[in-house]
Amino acid sequence: MIAEISEIKILRKRHGLTQTQLAKLSGVSQSLIAKLEAGIIDPSYSNVKKITETLSGLREKTEPKAENAMSDKIISVTGESLLSEAIKKMKHYEISQMPVIEGGVVAGLIAETDVIESIHTGKDIKQMKVKDAMAEAPPTVPLKTPLKAVTELLRISPIVVVTDKGKPKGAITKADILNKLSA
User: Fold this and answer.
1) What dotted CATH number matches 7-62?
2) How many whole angstroms separate alpha carbon 87 and alpha carbon 118?
3) Cα distance between residue 145 and residue 183, in whole Å
4) What kind of fold does domain 66-182 have according to CATH?
5) Of 2, 52, 79, 172, whose CB is crowded by the most CB atoms within 10 A?
6) Any residues with CB less than 8 A from the CB of 127 and at least 6 apart, and which?
């Protein structure tokens, strides 16, 4: 719900709506919208609720979604792949991490840091499998997840996998977000 009734006018204009259009969408009169915005009426809770739910719904419809920012080609490996093959793949595609996918499900994440940690602990990475070095699975979100929620996940994870009906369809990294902003 909107914190201040005075925000209604700001949000209405942000969505490019006239008072009449907002009134029709909300199921209230245009004169109520005008009086609210002028600050000359103390509206009922139910009318404010109708208006704010309408404005909130408009925001959700116009907000960018995960599917708008994802790379639709997922570069991945399986847990049974040799770690050396995963390293070659990361080098070839110039990426620093990739999901580990088993049976169509995201099972883990292999990243440069996991490889470095394996080297640091003295393991022979040429003989290792990805499953022996991978980290836990990165977050997954449906296609229609608001981009704001994805950026929140990117604060704690280097990659977010985008799914459709539970199956991986794309991935979003911090670089994808930056590229989207510079486009």
Assistant:
1) 1.10.260.40
2) 12
3) 21
4) CBS-domain (3.10.580)
5) 172
6) 82
